[in-house]
Amino acid sequence: MKTRARMVLPALLVTAAAVFGVGAAAPAVAAPAVAAQSAPSLKQPLADGHDVYRGWYFTKETCRDAGDAGIARRHWDSYSCAPGKGGFLHHLWSNR
C-alpha cells in the first residue's frame, strides 16, 4: 500500500501543478501589452475603492454570488469580480 501511495502522490502533484499553472508544463506565450495592463494584479487594488481582496472563484457567476451574499449580510457595500491570469479565475474585491 505504501508503494502505491508513493507512486500516486507525485503524479497528483504534477497534475495539480499543470492544471493550476505552477510548473513549466506548457511554454509561455507573450500577451499583448494592452491586455496585461487591463487585468488587475493582487498587489494593486481596483480603482473603484474596492481595496479588500476576498478570494478567487472558478467562474464569474460564483464570484458574483459571493459578492451578492456579502452585500446581503452587510459585510460590504459594493464589490467587483476581476478576471485573473488566464481568464479562468475571478478575484473578488470589496470596499471594506
Topology:
Layout: H1 2-20, H2 33-38, E1 52-57, H3 60-72, E2 79-83, E3 90-94
Antiparallel strand pairs: 1-3, 2-3
Task: Describe the protein's architecture and organization.
The chain has a three-stranded antiparallel beta sheet, with helices on one face. A hairpin with a 6-residue loop joins strand 2 (79-83) and strand 3 (90-94). It has helices spanning 2-20, 33-38, 60-72; strands at residues 52-57, 79-83, 90-94. With 96 residues, the protein is α+β, with helices and mostly antiparallel strands. The N and C termini lie far apart (49 Å).
Task: Label this structure with key terms.
globular, three-stranded antiparallel β-sheet, single chain, 96 residues, alpha+beta
Number of strands: 3
What is the overall number of helices? 3
Structural class: alpha+beta
Proportion in helices: 25-40%
Can you summarize the main beta sheet?
Answer: 3 strands, antiparallel
Low-confidence stretches: 22-37
What would the average pLDDT be, to the nearest integer?
72
Compact summary:
The protein is α+β, with helices and mostly antiparallel strands. The chain has helices at residues 2-20, 33-38, 60-72; strands spanning 52-57, 79-83, 90-94. A hairpin with a 6-residue loop joins strand 2 (79-83) and strand 3.
